[in-house]
Task: inverse folding
């Protein structure tokens, strides 16, 4: 059994747009619709739980009902990405310790192959993330000064969907809830922090699986969309 927690609650403050970025149009569909459809059409996905903001529940719910037969819940998220993830994770009731994929709705190009890779990796690991190589030189800086230049061959960039066994990610989040000193940026970071003996596997990510964060990202997204749909 495989369940998706699709995060569509972000306010998009860095995007600087009157339209929430998950609702931005890309080829006649919102970014959210592209993401939810990818999971809905995957044969191994059984359910999709959508997490969004209070003000978008009705609109996101209507979109999900229109394009997704597997969406079972539309829930209000928390104040942070981690708290929104936990809302989704905590809504899952199963005695089977199912596979759970957590994905950002602002990544509209998640492919069937990438979803399959993550699900397959969960047969070996309790946590997994797609990764892509770092191409640029990395500087470590303190107060506008470079203090080291790490070996970039040792580093990769994480993407979503990140995958987990339900018991693993739920246990990690429950410890996070009791710790106000840690602010994670992804769910694998929560597992590494609180369940350090849990191995986190990686699979090859996809350069097209971009996250829409800034307005310039939509230029690249439109180029990817046009290339993919150029028949």
Result:
């Amino acid at each position: 059994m495989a369940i998706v927690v699709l995060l569509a609650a972000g306010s998009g403050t860095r995007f600087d747009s009157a339209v929430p970025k998950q609702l931005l149009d890309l080829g006649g569909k919102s970014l959210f619709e592209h993401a939810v459809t990818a999971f809905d059409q995957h044969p191994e996905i059984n359910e999709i739980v959508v997490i969004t903001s209070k003000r978008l529940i009705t609109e996101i719910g209507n979109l999900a009902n229109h394009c997704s037969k597997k969406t079972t819940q539309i829930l209000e998220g928390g104040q942070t990405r981690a708290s929104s993830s936990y809302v989704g994770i905590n809504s899952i009731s199963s005695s089977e310790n199912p596979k759970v994929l957590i994905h950002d709705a602002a990544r509209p190009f998640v492919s069937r192959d990438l979803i399959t890779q993550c699900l397959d990796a969960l047969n070996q690991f309790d946590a997994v993330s797609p990764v892509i190589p770092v191409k640029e030189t990395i500087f470590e800086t303190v107060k506008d000064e470079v203090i080291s230049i790490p070996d970039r061959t040792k580093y990769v960039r994480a993407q979503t969907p990140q995958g987990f066994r339900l018991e693993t990610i739920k246990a990690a989040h429950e410890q996070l809830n009791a710790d106000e000193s840690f602010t994670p940026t992804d769910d694998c970071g929560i597992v590494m922090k609180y369940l350090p003996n849990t191995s986190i596997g990686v699979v090859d990510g996809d350069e097209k699986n971009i996250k829409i964060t800034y307005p310039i990202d939509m230029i690249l997204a439109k180029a990817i969309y046009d290339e993919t749909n150029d028949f």
Observations:
- The radius of gyration is 18 Å.
- The first strand starts at residue 2 and ends at 8.
- The chain has seven helices and twelve strands.
